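FIELD: query
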Amino acid sequence: MAITTPVLGATTLPQVDADGYTETPELRGATTEMVSGALATDLVNASVKRRFELSWRTLTEAEVTSIVSAWSTMITSGSASFTAPNGGSYTVTHDDQLTLPVRWEKITASGLLGGLTLRLRQI
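FIELD: result
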């Protein structure tokens, strides 16, 4: 699988960390356990959708600002195009993520690097 630079909307994102990309296929719907113990499943449709999680641990302030800007634009617009690190192209929205915590780590007496996790959901 080729590695591609991730893009959200019109913003090229930094490369994710080595273990910083998770793609989870899912079917959307609900399952209910019946009194008999059988499971009843009701799907919205039978097509597989995906959830994505991108993580970074060593971002500069400019990179954090770029990611936060792309994320907030996606939320206010309702959706955005997304090119995943594996090269796939999707239309996504936030995955119930209206906050985007940034973890800042001191690396020198005067320098900080940020880390964050971005969660996206295919629509």
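FIELD: remark
The first strand starts at residue 7 and ends at 8.
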